[in-house]
Structure formats: structure tokens, C-alpha cells
Amino acid sequence: MEMRCVLRVEGLSYTYSRDLVALRDVEFEVYSGEVVTVLGPNGAGKTTLLKCILRLLEPRGVVYINGKRRWDELSSRELAKYFGYVPQTHHSIFAYRVLDFILMGRAPHHTMFSLPSRRDYEKVHEVAKLLGIEDLLERSITELSGGQMQLVLIARALVQEAKVLLLDEPTAHLDIVNSVRVLSVVRKLVKSGRVDAAIMAMHDPVLAASFSDKVLLMSRGRVVACGSPRDVLRPEVLREVYGVDFVRFEHCGFVVVVPRASTEV
Amino acid sequence: MRKLVPKLFVSFSLPLAILISLLLGHYRTDPKTVLEVVLSAVFPHLIHSPPETVRVIVLLYRAPRAIAAAITGAVLAVSGAALQSMLRNPLVDTYILGIASGAGFGAALAIAFLPPTVPVELVAFCFSLIAFMLAFVLAWSWGRGGVIALVLSGVIVNAFFSAALALVKYLAPDPHRLASIVFWLMGDIGQAAFWYKIMRMLAISLPCILVIWFMRWRLNVLSLGDEEARALGVNPTVERGLLTAICALMTSATVAYTGIIGWVGLLVPHIVRLMLGTDNRVVVTYSIVFGATYMVLADDLARCLTSEELPIGVLTTIMGAPLYIYLLRRASGVWR
Fold first, then answer.
1. Quick check: is B335 in a domain?
2. Taking Cα atoms as reference points, which of B328, B329, B305, B307 lies closest to residue B315?
3. Is B235 in contact with A87 (Cβ distance < 8 A)?
4. CATH number for the domain harbouring residue B23
5. What is the count of structural domains for chain B?
6. Banded model confidence at residue B186, pLDDT cuts 50, 70, 90
7. Could you count the other beta carbons within 10 Å of the beta carbon of residue A46?
8. CB spacing of B228 vs A85 below 8 angstroms
9. CA B103 to CA B106: how far, in whole Å?
10. Residue in B227, B235, B279 nearest the CB of A97
11. How far apart are alpha carbons B280 and B215 in whole angstroms?
């Protein structure tokens, strides 16, 4: 597959208040077909980075989409057709039916006054089938488990017809089985060309190692290292960022990093 | 179509409720005569006209009253439904925006101190809009129109105008005017039951209801919260501002005529959600219909429960509170 630059971030900085700098000069590129993990401990600026790319926050710096267009030239509706945001979880006030909830992802394709059409419903069913969640469509979103909710949120981003998925800690509330399921779905979506790329914020280097093509390691708002999991996930680098000792194994071309229990008290 | 039976039930209950209220009252009539009156009013050449007494009673007293009740109910319910979604809070209605206390203050001011040539409803309308604008400006000045900012500003403005209202009551020059203020505050559909007043109410509320109805699916997206709405390409502050202003405008226009009628905007959307689900395409539509029905029936009770007329605002609140408790107990699965 031809590698196309779908996203280029240049000099992105964001400050919450005068002395709380969340992002400093972040630069990286994402190519089509890549699953990118933004990795780092809590407070490293992962979520802030995603929100800046989505323009939910107003950062300094530029993001080029498709390698050339500045993202601040696009309307929020156009931007919503390019980036699909998958929040960590959704705190629902109203018990929407899963079908109606996913359908809301069609909002960027509508004006203020228009209603979803048959085509929009077909899109929802098509995506639900793709993700294997057809049996959930009639359920209420308040009845879903964490893993199901995550898949429903991904489905909503897919009916947006977004080119790039941005996932904020997709596995934060999930057990290992569901984590693997959700991450496999994301990987499959990218590798099958359904979406151009996916960027996930994660704090767990173990999962990041096995599910991503590129790791962006962050610490205190800065990019510490960026590259393939093999290059980035080295015990000495991880120790510097997390303050924890890691052991690294390689097996069948996969890199596995495991935190070592500390013997110090 | 999902839940067709309850939808049909709600839809047919409105004309039925209106028909019932045309029948009820001291002057006895039968359904056939009432139907003849209504049909002869619509097709004057086809139906021979029934006795003049019945005609006058039905067309000039009961019909405008039922229609005024229906409009009031629809306005209160639909704005309650919209605000609950936009503010992501099932416990609010339009009165949270300071409208009721503003209108109450305006009406009290007009009754107590202004000459009788100044229409009470005009002053009430102006002050309820002033109260809303104060809350709105306040919310924008310190909270950029966010959800919490709107609710808190509304609470502040409400408190201010409630105090001002108490002051007007305290200073009211004579007990008759004080009594009029108290009656106004308890709500009375009869005040609005004239065709010319109905036309004025409709002129404002009909376009407003239509705008909200056309934006009913958008309300779903707005109820997701600002961050997710923006990620879906929607500007929540602008659209919420527009919709709140519309809700405030039409609520002011009805409350100015009818006085303060509580709990309808809070309760009706809840009942609709329990019956038909939470999708706002359904909730908005059927809140309009069911709000109208609910208010028409409540007004029938207010007129006919006792030999004296009961204040409608008191009745809706007394009916509403136990009904609400019952709903909340049943609805533990809907709200989390």
C-alpha cells in the first residue's frame, strides 16, 4: 500500500494556565495504514494532544491533514468528517437506544434542521454488522458493559465516515479480554483500509507494544521518542518516563515489555 | 413504526380531551349538539346551526379556554423537553431561566402600581424576557454560555426576582390588589381564553414550536455534552443559545397570559420518555401533543372538580408531585 501522510503535527503547544504547560512543541507524522499509540503516564498530555488535534482546545502550532491542508481552515463540520473521536467512555444522562446513539454520528452530514434518512440508518446497520454488534442495536446504552460501550463509540465514529480515528484511552475501563477485542477491531479497521489511520492514547506500554505500528512516547507534554515499538520501547527509555524497571522480550518478531516488580520498599 | 399503539393513544387523546372540555361545565350539553356546533362553525353551509345559547357557550367560552390550555401545555412541555436535553439535566424546565419569577414580578408590579390601562400581560411578558436576558448575559459573561453557567445564572436571577416580587406584595397599596397578585401567581387559563389573546399567543409560540420541532434530532446530539457535540461538528454554545432563547420567548408569551403553571414542563417530557423512549425526535413531537392533552384535562379538573374554580397552577403542582415520585420510582432504569 502506498504510504500517504494523513496527518502532520507541527510545533503544537498548549498551556492550560500560566504555569501548567500541557504540550510543548509536539511534532509527528501519521501515514495511511498506521496504528499510532500515544503512550505515556497519567498527566503526560496524551488526552490534551488528542483534543488539540480535534480542535476541542485551541493550541499554538499547526496540524496538516492529508499532508497539506491546515486544519484551522476547515469548518467544524468538515473536521468532523475527517476525525472521528472516540471518548474514553460516555456518561449518558438519557438512556438512548444504541441504534439512535450510533445514528448521532451522522450529524456532520446534516444541517441544523435535517433528519436522518434511510441511508443513514443503512450506514448504521452496515457498521454494526462490521463490528459484530448488531444484537446490541435495540438495547439501551445504559445497559452496556464497558467493552460494548467502547465498540458502540467506535461505531459512532465510523458512521461519521471519519478518515482518522482518535481514541482516548480506549482500554481504560476494560478487562484484558475486552481490551484485546477493542484493539483488534481498531487494528482491523486500519489494516482493511476502512479508516486511513488510528491514533490511540494509552498508558499501558504492554498493550501498545503489541497493537501499534508507531509509538509516540510522551512525558510532561514533550515527545520523548517516536518510532516503531521495537525502537521506542527500550527498558532504559521506559524507565526514564515511567520510573519503573521493564524487562523486554522478543518473540516471533513481536516486542513484549513487562514491568518488573520492584524489590525496594 | 415503534410503539405504534402508545403513539396513537397519545395522538387521539388530544382531540378527545378537547371534546370533553367542550362538554363539561354548568350548562349541560350532549356530545351530539357539541359536535354540531363545532362542525357548523367549520362548515357553516352544510350543517344547520344549533341553538344560539349552546353556540355561544361552546364557541366563546369553552372552546377558547380548551385551545388556550392546549397551547400553554404544548409550549411548557416542549420547552421543558428541549431544555432537559440541552442542559443534560432531567430536573429542569423553562422556569430555571428566571422566566416565571420575572413574569410574576412584572404582573405584580402592573397590578399593584401601574394604571389599569396598562395590560398586565404586557408587563409580565417584558419582565420575564428581561429576567431571561439577565440570566443569559450573566451566563455568557462568566461561563461562555456553558450548561452550569446557564443553570446557576437562572437560579440567581430567579432568587432576585422572587425577592423583588415579595417586596411588591409587601408594598401593595390595598388588599384587593394583593389578592389579585396572589391569584395571578397561581395561574388561570381563563385569563387567556379569548380568541384575540389566543391569536397573539399563537403568533409567537407557533413559529417557536416549529423551530424546536425541526431541530428535534439535533437535540439528541446536543444532549451528548459539549465535547462530543463539537467532535460531531456541532457548535453547542451557539445552538443551545438559540434554542434557549426560543424556549424563553414562547414560555414568556404564554406565562404572561396564564400566570405561573408549574410542573408541566418538568413532568410531561418524563412521561413521554417513559412511554416512548428517549429519542428526541419522539420526545419533542409527543411532548407537544401530550403537553396539550395534559393541560386541557388539568384545566377541566380545575373548572369542574368543585363548584368554585381551582387555581390551575396549584392543581398541576399537587397532581404533579405524587405522579413524579411514582415515575421516578418506576424509572430507576432510565435515569442513572
1. no
2. B305
3. no
4. 1.10.3470.10
5. 1
6. very high
7. 26
8. yes
9. 5
10. B279
11. 9
